[in-house]
Amino acid sequence: MTVGAVVAAGGRGERLGAALPKALVLLGGEALVVHACRALRSAGVSEVVVAAPPDDVEVVAALVPEVRVVAGGVTRTESVRRALVHLSSDVDIVLVHDAARALAPPSLVRRVADAVRAGADAVVPVVAVADTVKQVDTSGVVVATVDREMLRAVQTPQGFRRSVLTQAHNAAGADADATDDAGLVERLGIAVVTVPGAVEALKVTTRADLLVAETLHERPDAGE
């Protein structure tokens, strides 16, 4: 089965405090999007399509000449939908990845793709939730303590049979704005299975996240 990937790289990075799109922020001297695409290709992904900010398509394309770069949309969901249609017709498995999770290792990419090959319609990598989680009301008052034993934090890349992902996006409609593509698949009543995530696959959202990512990137075993 042929594996292709879509990289959502349209975030503006306001919470990061950067003067440029998040995907172009440097980590170890290279843009986040470069790291993300390299991991996908290193894991054997046949082709990659990046959804970049419309004003920065040429800039991103120059950084990752081995992949196709298209203009993303206003929302993450729209960006993924736009990139999805540019994958070759022979792609059977689609991985959807966030450029902000630049250090997701190739081993994680392979783990997700292998789970789809083994028969899953949709796969997400997850890690256990370490913090105590509180449910609050609109005033911020705690109403319940959630059992974290049944909670998982979800990472990317997420993997899908292409037909399932396409069906989910078509059903969601043009105005959909989901935080991840697995959420769209869940609305169809299709099971989403999990595989172990990776600490390196943290999402770079704030300056503190970037500092952690820098530390992880400098480890001797980084990128394995």
Please report the first level of CATH classification, the CATH class.
Answer: Alpha Beta
Number of strand segments: 12
Count of helices?
7
Mean pLDDT: 93
Distance between the termini: 24 Å
In CATH, what is the homologous superfamily? Spore Coat Polysaccharide Biosynthesis Protein SpsA, Chain A
Q: From the alpha-carbon coordinates, what is the Rg to the nearest angstrom?
A: 17 Å
Q: Quick one: overall form?
A: globular
Output the helix-strand order. EEEHEHEHEHEEEEEHHEH
**Residue share in β-strands:** 15-25%
Major β-sheet profile: 8 strands, mixed
Helix content: 25-40%
CATH architecture field: Alpha-Beta Complex
How does the helix and strand content classify structurally? alpha/beta
The tally of domains stands at: 1
Low-confidence stretches: none
Q: What name does CATH use for the topology?
A: Spore Coat Polysaccharide Biosynthesis Protein SpsA, Chain A
Tell me what the structure shows.
There is one protein chain. With 224 residues, this protein is of the alpha/beta class. It has one domain (3-126, 153-217): Spore Coat Polysaccharide Biosynthesis Protein SpsA, Chain A, CATH 3.90.550. The protein is 30% helix and 24% strand. The protein is built from seven helices and twelve strands. The strands form three sheets. Strands 1, 4, 5, 6, 7, 10, 11 and 12 form an eight-stranded mixed β-sheet that branches. Strands 2-3 form a two-stranded antiparallel ribbon. A hairpin with a 5-residue loop joins strand 8 (133-136) and strand 9. The protein is globular.
